[in-house]
Amino acid sequence: DAKTTQPPSMDCAEGRAANLPCNHSTISGNEYVYWYRQIHSQGPQYIIHGLKNNETNEMASLIITEDRKSSTLILPHATLRDTAVYYCIVHGSGNTGKLIFGQGTTLQVKP
Amino acid sequence: NAGVMQNPRHLVRRRGQEARLRCSPMKGHSHVYWYRQLPEEGLKFMVYLQKENIIDESGMPKERFSAEFPKEGPSILRIQQVVRGDSAAYFCASRELINNEQFFGPGTRLTVL
């Protein structure tokens, strides 16, 4: 599975968009980009995933660059409850599905 | 549709005792994963099971740890002769056959005295 690089921490003002970047320059053609988050001490929560097209659901949007070497998770209107550690994970459909968590980005939403 | 359930939520054991952690996957999910999160550390994959089969146990410690997912009933993570270093949060996740999104339970927090 491709390795990902994320900034260790970010701040965002409540009500503003939070844009969380992820670099995955060694991603291969059949690998998806997944985003999960972990709110303090809770179980991780699936957010969104994509292959090459941009994706949007009720929680967030995922923008993947054309060369697929990086992506951005967008929380359009961050709330205090979005404060969490956000994990960008890349893995292919052919593997066992196990998630390899890095250090993630700690997003602090401030009032 | 109830989410992934884990019990107990908190478990206290003395050194040398056994710990049994249970995970009931979401309805219709036949794939179960166990992850461990040591204090102030990230989540680490332990084992991946399907009904009655261990598919990938590459993250399991070589000794004292075992997992099962029987045909009926919850998945069990068993830790024999616990030591203080086993103190951690243990999370279970499940997924459907064809989708890779994993849904996590609330975790079991094991404390070894």
Describe the protein in words.
The complex is a heterodimer of chains A (111) and B (113). With 111 residues, chain A is mainly beta. Chain A is built from no helices and nine strands. The model of chain A has no long low-confidence stretch (mean pLDDT 93). Helices cover 0% and strands 50% of the residues of chain B. Chain B has strands at 5-7, 10-13, 19-24, 31-37, 43-50, 53-56, 65-68, 75-79, 88-95, 103-104, 108-112. Chain B starts with a strand and ends with a strand. Chain B is mainly β and 113 residues long. In chain B, the strands form two sheets. In chain B, strands 2, 4, 5, 6, 9, 10 and 11 form a seven-stranded mixed sheet that branches. In chain B, strands 1-3-8-7 form a four-stranded antiparallel sheet, with no helix packed on it. Chain B is globular and about 40 Å long. The mean pLDDT of chain B is 94. The A-B interface holds A 32, 34, 38, 41-46, 49, 91, 93, 96-104 and B 4, 31, 33, 35, 42-45, 48, 55-56, 59, 89, 91, 93, 95, 100-107.
What's a concise summary of this model?
Chain A is mainly β and about 110 residues long.
Give me the secondary-structure topology.
The complex is a heterodimer of chains A (111) and B (113).
Chain A lengths: L8 E5 L4 E6 L7 E8 L6 E6 L4 E2 L4 E4 L5 E6 L8 E9 L12 E6 L1
Parallel strand pairs in A: 1-9
Antiparallel strand pairs in A: 2-7, 3-4, 3-8, 5-6, 6-7, 8-9
Chain B lengths: L4 E3 L2 E4 L5 E6 L6 E7 L5 E8 L2 E4 L8 E4 L6 E5 L8 E8 L7 E2 L3 E5 L1
Parallel strand pairs in B: 2-11
Antiparallel strand pairs in B: 1-3, 3-8, 4-5, 4-9, 5-6, 7-8, 9-10, 9-11
